[in-house]
């Protein structure tokens, strides 16, 4: 009974808040993205592969974006002034837009290489199904996170949702290229690279919108939870 009470208190302390749960899940995805980015960078240098290196650049930018957003989230949790907290949240939101533009630009380079040179690493065997499962899982979590947290008007959480959507769409592009190639489509890389470049343009447009969009002013009620609006 005591153990159950203890575990319950731990749950509410660390995971009782929806925003905290979102941040914690993003820490887990950050670790996966960091391992992926570093692994591709090592392979790129070892194999002298431009495709692996450009992919690694994308993943490392993604990691830097998530690290700075999550760090600022912990900072805002300790701030007492609603006005100062909101200013910092809005700064993070606009900076997140800049990171989305960088992600769009870096991934467009990956897709451009794929289109012009046909430079890509195609997975085979059971790895294909693992890649597809991971991609659709990311997309489901991105959509669910957006829907579940739609009432949380926190600029920092909104930034994380945008970054997760970007990550999910890139995974879908990789899955499309892999599945089409496995089916023997002669235009697998061309169509996938064009789809990827279209996604890159979308990421940049999202980033520009974030940089110039002014979020609704938050309440100055000191008792509200960080980043939420009344």
TrEMBL record:
<feature type="transmembrane region" description="Helical">
    <location>
        <begin position="96"/>
        <end position="116"/>
    </location>
</feature>
<feature type="transmembrane region" description="Helical">
    <location>
        <begin position="56"/>
        <end position="75"/>
    </location>
</feature>
<keyword id="KW-0812">Transmembrane</keyword>
<feature type="transmembrane region" description="Helical">
    <location>
        <begin position="122"/>
        <end position="144"/>
    </location>
</feature>
<feature type="transmembrane region" description="Helical">
    <location>
        <begin position="194"/>
        <end position="212"/>
    </location>
</feature>
<feature type="transmembrane region" description="Helical">
    <location>
        <begin position="165"/>
        <end position="182"/>
    </location>
</feature>
<feature type="transmembrane region" description="Helical">
    <location>
        <begin position="23"/>
        <end position="50"/>
    </location>
</feature>
<protein>
    <submittedName>
        <fullName>Divalent metal cation (Fe/Co/Zn/Cd) transporter</fullName>
    </submittedName>
</protein>
<keyword id="KW-1133">Transmembrane helix</keyword>
<keyword id="KW-0472">Membrane</keyword>
<dbReference type="InterPro" id="IPR027469">
    <property type="entry name" value="Cation_efflux_TMD_sf"/>
</dbReference>
